[in-house]
Write a structure and sequence with these properties.
Number of helices: 10
CATH superfamily: Aldolase class I
Order of helices and strands: EHEHEHEHHEHHEHHEEEEEEH
Radius of gyration: 19 Å
Shape: globular
Low-confidence stretches: none
CATH architecture: Alpha-Beta Barrel
Mean pLDDT: 93
CATH topology: TIM Barrel
Bound molecules: S-adenosylmethionine
Distance between the termini: 29 Å
Strand content: 15-25%
Helix content: 25-40%
Structural class: alpha/beta
Strand order of the largest sheet: 7-8-9-6-5-4-3-2-1-10-11-12
Length: 325
Amino acid sequence: MGRLVDGFGRRFRYLRLSITEVCNYSCTYCLPDGFKKSGAMSFLTPDEIDRLVRAFAGFGVAKLRLTGGEPSVRRDLVEIIARAAATPGIDKVAITTNGWNLRRNAAAWREAGLTNLNVSIDSLDPAVFHRITGHDQLNQIVAGLDLALALGTPTVKANAVLLRDTVERGFDAFTDFVRDRPISFRFIELMRTGDNAAYFDDQHVSGVDLQGWLAARGWTPMAKAFDDGPATDYSHPDHAGRIGLIAPYAPGFCDSCNRLRVTSRGALRLCLFGELGVNLRDLLVPGQEEALQARIQAALVGKPAGHRLHENNSGDTRQLAQFGG
Ligand code: SAM
């Protein structure tokens, strides 16, 4: 079996697949005016997704994350999860969701084979949450997360974008949240995209600030396994859960890149902040399995060493909902 290794010796065992560009939230840093339709809304079908996942699994990719847009706006999501979970070689099926319908769907997703759930919760203050996302749904999302934990979903995490507003209000609410919940609450440093430059200048805070805050309160960084992604988790003896930090502006961030991305229209994106992508969709049909794998492998040569966010270069990424954050 071939492996997916790029020109810098990085091996890829993790695929992030966007299944829709549509999002029902209007987060200030991503889609402040809400999702606007552009082009035909023709996203990959469950059959196409199945062929794609089989091709990547054939290269030893063992983990699939479904993202978007908001993946849970798709009515066929349970089928997509179930087929991915049944694919030989895939041992983790993950989703990143804003959690708006989690309470209703947590059991069905778990039964279909979902193993990893990431819920985006940018603030634990209902009013601030409402202001950031455009929706007053914090309590129902937290109830959905607690239900997923109670149902035994193997890995549950929460994500928050690190924003100046959040920093100024302090992080205590987040550490309280993981006092008894065995989850990792991960902060993602705000990334500059084509559309959010002014917002970025106003709200970007370096992950170093969070590191200082955690160290001063007795949180210590945990050792990383060799195949871990770019997040660093911090633990504390008085807390069941952990706090995580994803700091894309930190030196060496891309050195441990272990992921590839495919857009909801079937293009392989070699970097979230790159340009264009390699079309795979024409090969997501019966009889093209070998050609599909050959195109994926050939494309890896073009994977860059790292993003160029430091130069204020976000490639053609206007916002993260476009290609799957
Ligand atoms: N709709 C889903 C959700 O809300 O989790 C999945 C897609 S969303 C684009 C994936 C993640 O990217 C979310 O946690 C979101 O907060 C984060 N995100 C979006 N834009 C971002 C940016 N400019 N910088 C950092 N994180 C961002």
